[in-house]
TrEMBL record:
Domain Putative restriction endonuclease: 27-182
Keyword Hydrolase in annotation: yes
UniProt-listed Pfam families: Uma2 (PF05685)
Record-linked PANTHER family: SLL1072 PROTEIN (PTHR35400:SF3), SLR1083 PROTEIN (PTHR35400)
One function term, GO molecular function aspect: endonuclease activity
Keyword Hydrolase (UniProt): yes
InterPro entries, per database record: Nuclease_put_TT1808, Restrct_endonuc-II-like, Uma2
Signal peptide feature range: none
Protein name: Endonuclease, Uma2 family (Restriction endonuclease fold)
Lineage: Bacteria, Pseudomonadati, Pseudomonadota, Alphaproteobacteria, Sphingomonadales
Alphabetized UniProt keyword annotations: Endonuclease, Hydrolase, Nuclease
Organism (species): Sphingomonas rubra
CDD domains, per database record: DUF820-like
Length: 190
């Protein structure tokens, strides 16, 4: 009589190859260019695809307001909205806006060395923006990172990337002056 086979799951994991597909930034960009993600917003994080929810109207409204405020103190060529940041071999993140050292040429992803400030508007993504994205931007040596948290009515300001995180962390409430890196100007987010 046949007996049921007993499989030790630890042994099975050693034998079976990983079923997760991992991608490089180059492979991901090739898929983007071929239209693979035309109907969705996707980021590449550590070689894995992460689908992002579409932004709601509150997010879009706050994003536009911040772009307008920054455009009053930063030349338009140095300010990009909804841009991809190439953080290395296996990570490409989209940010809500970036202030650059100088305008970039051509239609391409931005490199961390070109960035003065990255801004994320966090209406529903605060934990991701203050966690995974903060650490990814710090590892990439992006000098200053803002998380504009509409639910709490404040901006988390991260600066001085060191050892994979930011050494300086400040909180600026909406309605208070916020220093714009790379300028002598301030803006007030509300």
């Amino acid at each position: 009589m046949n007996k049921p086979a007993r499989i030790d799951l630890a042994d099975a994991r050693e034998i079976a190859p990983s079923s997760k597909a991992r991608f490089t930034t180059a492979e991901f960009l090739h898929m983007v260019e071929s239209g693979a993600f035309d109907d969705m917003k996707v980021e590449l994080v550590g070689g894995e695809l992460e689908r992002m929810p579409p932004p709601g109207s509150t997010h879009a409204s706050r994003q536009v307001k911040i772009i307008v405020l920054l455009s009053a103190v930063v030349s338009s060529g140095r300010l990009l909205g909804e841009v991809g940041l190439d953080l290395g071999d296996d990570t490409l993140l989209g940010c809500d806006l970036a202030v650059l050292h100088a305008p970039v040429e051509g239609n391409r992803m931005v490199l961390p060395s070109e960035v003065v400030l990255v801004v994320e508007v966090a209406e529903t993504t605060a934990s991701r923006d203050r966690g995974m994205k903060r650490l990814a931007y710090a590892r990439a040596d992006i000098p200053t990172y803002w998380v504009v948290d509409g639910k709490l009515g404040l901006t988390h300001v991260y600066s001085e990337p060191r050892d994979g995180d930011y050494a300086e962390i400040a909180t600026v409430r909406f309605g208070e002056s916020l220093a714009v890196p790379g300028t002598a100007a301030t803006i007030t987010i509300d």
